[in-house]
Amino acid sequence: MKVLRINTSDIVGGAAIAISRLHQGLISKGIDSKFLVQLSQTTSSAVKLLPRAKWVDLQVGRLTRNLGFNEIHLTSTFDTVKHPFYQEADILHLHNLHGGYFNYLALPALTQEKPAILTLHDMWAFTGHCAYSFECDRWQIGCGHCPDLKTYPAIKRDQTKWEWKLKQWAYQHSNLKAVVTTSQWMMERAQQSMLGHLPIYRIPPGLDTSCYQPLNKSQCRELLGLPLHQPVVMAAADRLSDPRKGGALMVQALNTLPPSLQSELVLITMGYGAEKLAESVAVKVFNLGFLSGDRLKAIAYSAADLFLFPTCAENFGLVAQESIACGTPVVAFAAGGVPDIVRPKITGLLAEVENVTQFRDAIVQLLEDRATRERMGQAGRAIAQAEYSLDLYAQRYIDLYQQAL
Question: CATH no. for residue 269?
């Protein structure tokens, strides 16, 4: 079986990381797995770039973007059928198709001879433009009158009604065999959307639990130069400065901790944009920057007593998954698919979305209760091994590919 995945990137971003791990799992099971992406940061022979935008595309794009359409100018997407990876593939596996690199109107042509699976990493596939709709539910009735054109990916004019209709047309004329969601939250929304006529499955991402595992806390802190006997919390995101990731809310929570706890607490930050947080938070900060190595990340998770995940809108939450696999409980907002991983009083504690007081109180509660943290850490590790192994992740998709073929 030969599987071709199409995504924005090969390794950058949460979706790309999840896809890369799936690739590893498929290869280990003897599946021919390849990528076509907009941006490649690896030298793997299994990764190639999608056809570049043509000169005429760029000129037309100036007009269509000003009119409020971000992708429909890209005729280069139709050239994907000429690529050797496409021609050799038995099945297409589509992922994040937004970002200005892929024309969704090409889906009927691309899937005419190749069955396809679509995995949702956010809501964009069934909205009039946004990746997360927050409180808006107009995606259920056809969009239009968009409350926030600046929500990623931003548009210049409100054409959300027409983009919604164009996406619906593309799906109705495509050979899509199934839609996959990574969380129960996303599955429920997909069922209520324009994709609801298709079979919808939930397959959570997997990870290498032999790499992401609990390590000796004292040794990890020594390696990172952290104090051995002070409370340590950790926060991580692709871009902590992104308002959706809730960095500012986390700062508010930490800045209202009891003074005695503030004076001792150390915050480990991992990801782009963490430097600005350090300027505004009233605790000691140790910034690791962006880490791509799984072993280095496992050391950081294991060094922490708690992982803080203040995201306000999330499909799943790979960093929270990595944390529980390393035996570190999580404090988070009950946003989107986060409750799939952060199970209250089992793998961590949840606060109402944007409720800073509840978030702060959960931090205090767990930092003062070592026995509960250890119990949650053990439960999180057991769940990661039972539900999120790389082998199970790959096998679920193999079964779905075979069913689609």
Answer: 3.40.50.2000
Give the mean pLDDT of 316-323: 96
One domain for residues 181 and 250: no
Q: Comparing C-alpha atoms, which of 40, 57, 53, 56 is closest to residue 5?
A: 40
Mean pLDDT for the stretch of residues 12-29:
94
272 and 360 belong to one structural domain: yes
Sequence-ordered list of residues with C-beta below 8 angstroms from that of 3, at least 6 positions apart, any chain = 26, 31, 32, 33, 34, 89, 90, 91, 93, 401
Least confidently predicted of 130-139, 277-286, 353-362: 277-286
Cβ-proximal residues to 216 (8 Å cutoff; 6+ apart), any chain: 302
Extract the runs of DSSP E, i.e. beta strands, from 205-313: 232-239, 266-272, 284-289, 306-309
Q: Give a yes or no: residue 394 inside a domain.
A: yes
Number of domains in the chain: 2
Q: What is the rounded distance in angstroms from the CA atom of residue 231 to the CA atom of residue 227?
A: 9
Structural domain containing residue 73: 2-206+390-404
- DSSP 8-state assignment for residue 389: B
pLDDT at 242: 79
With 0-12 CB in 10 A as exposed, 13-18 as middle and 19+ as buried, what is 156? middle
Contact 315, 336 (CB under 8 A): yes
Are both 235 and 287 inside the same structural domain?
yes
Query: Using one digit for the tens of pLDDT, what is the confidence trace for 110-152?
Result: 999 999 999 999 999 999 999 999 999 999 999 999 999 999 9
Q: What pLDDT, on the 0 to 100 scale, is given for residue 42?
A: 87
